[in-house]
Amino acid sequence: MHPFSDEIDPLLRQQILLYHSTATMADSERANVLGLPEGCRIREGAKIISQEKLSIGTNCWIGENAILDASGGLEVGSSTSIGLSVFVWTHDSHLMNIDGDNSREDNHRIKRRATKIGNNCFIAGHSVIMPGVTIGDSCIIGPLSVVYNDLPDNSTYTPYRDFYKQKNTITKLEKRIMELEKLVLNKDR
């Protein structure tokens, strides 16, 4: 008995073998084997799901262990960099889990929505782009970001950094309040 299931779609098996065979290639060689446009580079461990539904421009870079889910339709403009371990999603399957039916036969219940990323964008590592989001041209997505809503052209999206700045501002304000309370207490004496 061999360990491979006859129930696995031969196209899926072919995709697995193709990615495995590119493990020792350079970024540009890997992109060429995967049929990506001119000037594209894709690092080892990166994966494109449903590549036939991906539209990607020239001169794009895809970082290590990034996952581009094109199952619901994914468009990426030219000269865009997608950092390491970035996840770009076009599907959502949580309803199957909530209902307790996470079976292959029930996968028609997966919700798919097209996701778009414009030209000249930079998406920093460990970020997540949610299904159905449109990111305009020339946008910067900061590290550790989760993008739930559309972003217009020329946006800089850095919620983690912004949160950290707000935290520092709050800390400074709390310190100033304590100083003022001491002044009031000393004045009353």
Automatic annotation (TrEMBL):
It comes from the Bacteria. Keywords: Transferase. InterPro entries: Hexapep, Trans_hexapeptide_repeat, Trimer_LpxA-like_sf. GO terms for molecular function: transferase activity. Belongs to the transferase hexapeptide repeat family. SUPFAM superfamilies: Trimeric LpxA-like enzymes. This is Acetyltransferase. It holds the Pfam family Hexapep_2.
